[in-house]
Specification:
single chain, alpha/beta, Rossmann fold, 221 residues, globular
């Protein structure tokens, strides 16, 4: 996270007088953020990771924390469909989108494997009578999915509107590191329509970065 999670918690506390206890983290990789979550009041976390090869190491890492945690080996999208997942040789750059400027900026990172995987809308999973998820009233959402952030947000449906959601942390882009990905202005417009405002952004020189969006109080919208 380019923005320290403690800063995110301080922003949520300042705006909503609350500390996020239930976190939805999409694009877990190896769960590097678990340390910061554990140190800053988180109690329950759902980790989504589409690359099943990472599951054993992710599980091993998470066992050292006393939080209630769940790993879900599935991909999220704005429809229930099958997608072509491009797995890169550094794993963290894997995406549903083809490399574009990313290939110029990081020529040593290449697609090592392509795999068809099933993707779901989050609301499809949550609305199922056999939902595998341990909670649905998430308070902090963190999405790090190399261009799929907007599609995932759209796939949340009405769960994005629930009052429990206080903040959304996203990887954002000012240039097409991956082909045809939504840029930050499009994400801003979508989240503004849902009463989330971008309050802090850290960008890299390569045109990608992180941003945190805070939900406005109902009285102010």
């Amino acid at each position: 996270m380019l923005i320290d999670y403690k800063i995110c918690v301080d922003l949520v506390r300042a705006c909503h007088n609350a500390v996020p206890k239930k976190i939805l983290h999409i694009g877990a990789h190896l769960g590097e953020e678990a340390v910061a979550y554990n140190q800053n009041g988180a109690e329950q976390i759902i980790w989504f990771e589409a690359n099943e090869a990472l599951a054993p190491a992710l599980q091993t890492h998470l066992t050292q924390f006393q939080m209630r945690q769940q790993i879900v080996g599935a991909a999220l999208w704005d429809s229930d469909t099958t997608l072509n997942f491009k797995i890169t040789n550094n794993l963290q750059s894997s995406s549903f989108f083809d490399l574009e400027d990313h290939a110029k900026l990081y020529p040593n990172i290449t697609v090592a494997e392509e795999r068809e995987i099933r993707a779901h809308r989050l609301d499809t999973l949550l609305n199922s009578s056999t939902s595998p998820l341990i909670f649905s009233d998430f308070e902090f959402i963190n999405i790090d999915t190399q261009g799929a952030e907007l599609a995932i947000l759209k796939g949340m449906g009405n769960y994005l509107h629930q009052a429990s959601v206080k903040a959304i942390y996203l990887e954002v882009n000012q240039r097409e590191l991956y082909k045809n990905i939504p840029l930050v202005e499009e994400i801003d417009a979508f989240l503004l329509a849902h009463h989330f405002f971008r309050v802090k952004t850290v960008m890299t020189h390569e045109g990608w970065g992180d941003a945190i969006y805070i939900r406005a109080h109902e009285s102010s919208v």
